Write the structure tokens for this entry.
Amino acid sequence: MSDKSEELYDNAVDLIQEGKMEEGITVIEEALMEDPEDGQTWQLYSVVLKANGREEDAANALKKAESFGVDELQALLMKAAEAHVEGNLPAAISRFEEALEIDESLPEVWVAYAMALVQGGYEKDALDATEKAVSLGESEPQPWYARGHVLRVVGDFAAALPAFEKAVGIAPDLGIAWHELGMVKVETGDLAGAKTAFAKVLELQPDDPAAAEAMAIVQAKMEE
């Protein structure tokens, strides 16, 4: 997997975990255009297509994945992703733990594990997982984004701020991190900072309705 296709793959996983399936599919397709022989991406594509009810397309994508080869670790991660998409968090968490038993050195696996944990209400474990992710991938944006996300969910906004700022500093086009940075800025009373963050989201994704709504709310608060 090339650096570009890996970045697209990670972005797609983030979107899927947020429930943005159609956007995730678009990014997966970009990743496949970048590296059309990556079995892991084809398998993720199959999982998401199946979740969207596109059974025939999913079966074709799975055949592609199998033709390029998927190892045991990749197979576990895809099972985890499929369970997560289906809302089966206990199964997803178990598959991630099995994957980490095979290789605990991959920050992206710790990130995905943390996101499943926090969604399942295991907040302390999720924080521990993001700490591990950051220690393994300090120069990558996804571990910092995951750290900020979990801290925001548990209500530690002061600690979430630098994590999101680190994420967007490494990857200025990471719209999801800008969005959550804006949310935290609102919570800490920095409306001007929130406006800047949501403006950046809209610069990257002009048709994002959530960012447009958040921007309108911030502007209204600033005029009060």
